[in-house]
Amino acid sequence: MAFKPANKIQDLQYFGEFGGVNPSISDSSTYTFLSAKTMFDTFEGNADGCYLYSRHTSPSNLYLGEALAAMEGTETANVSASGMGAITPVILQLCGAGDHVVSSRTIYGGTYAFLKNFTPRFNIKASFVDITKLEVVEAAITENTKVLYCESVSNPLLEVADIAGLAKLAKKYDLKLVVDNTFSPLSISPAKLGADIVIHSLTKFINGSSDTVGGVVCGTQEFINELKDVNSGASMLLGSTMDSLRSASVLKNLRTLHVRMEQHSKNAMYLAERFQSLGLKTVYPGLQSHPSHDIFKSMMNEKYGFGGMLTIDVGSLDRANALMEMMQHKNLGYLAVSLGFYKTLFSAPGTSTSSEIPEDEQAEMGLTDGLIRFSIGLDADIERTFNMMKACMEELHILEAELA
Ligand code: PLP
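That is the input. Now the predicted structure with pyridoxal-5'-phosphate docked in place:
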């Protein structure tokens, strides 16, 4: 039977202590015990239902974590203060000195910088490869490799990982496949395709209101316990814990994710088709012209579409900047990084979210100066949005330049 991630979220019920329809928020950093023995047992992780200290865990964080685990179809999950606060402990938990990561070369700039510049301090090395070519991925695996790392849909180039194919490789070489699913919540369920660990920056579509940063690691009970171990857990010891007030608020937003994703995807598909028919170089996994369209289709939970992210290439940074400024001026969206907001957000990744990647490597991976990344909003009238965007392009002579 098809996996239905939104049903999984909706079927969970948590009530507040007075019968509230929302669970009560645990507004405490520490918890009392009637007996010293129970406190000791809780510290040792042997007292179910007891809480000790909110960096370890809190009821509010558990509620959100369990809802996200249900969405991804994993045994459990651990929420964190940001997406990077989820990614970095996972890598440090899985790798020690001498170990090696095979990573997609088109990933979020912060993750790239962590693997390229930071983990080598601990003698953890990374090879960056074209994740869409399984033979290239396989050739990069060495006897020290512990992790295959990718994004389901990559930031910013929207390359699509063949998760089932990567999972087979991970199994063959006894590696952990870690998938960042930030760009495609609900649409793709990586754990169902064989990923061992699924990460999200909750900052984006899942929270959807651009009012907080947050992250989550979804995985087996065994791995999440390791991350949270008081003696050796990277999440516990590095301490990037989400605050309970925030996790309560993200949980409330999670409940509308299915409605929002359908609308983001519908609007993005509409614009991608129109942009492409104007002759603009348009990348969107929903277009037949996307090199991994069929792979996305074979992996997707159809109802939620191909996601809210698309890119166009207008040929130069100057043109990209002029277009973004004009679109913002006409209230078509905001010149801002991040994604998943109700309003369309656009930025030029080469000079913003991917600026950590050196220019020559940007060129090699096809990240051009004129690339604009759009996170398409929940616009009620996407036809009007398109007509207004087209008018901006005409005023700036972008279409003539593109078609020339
Ligand atoms: N993963 C992806 C795909 C992202 O786009 C981002 C942020 O832009 C992150 C992870 C990092 O998340 P955060 O900013 O919440 O730490």
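The chain has two domains: 5-254, 258-403.
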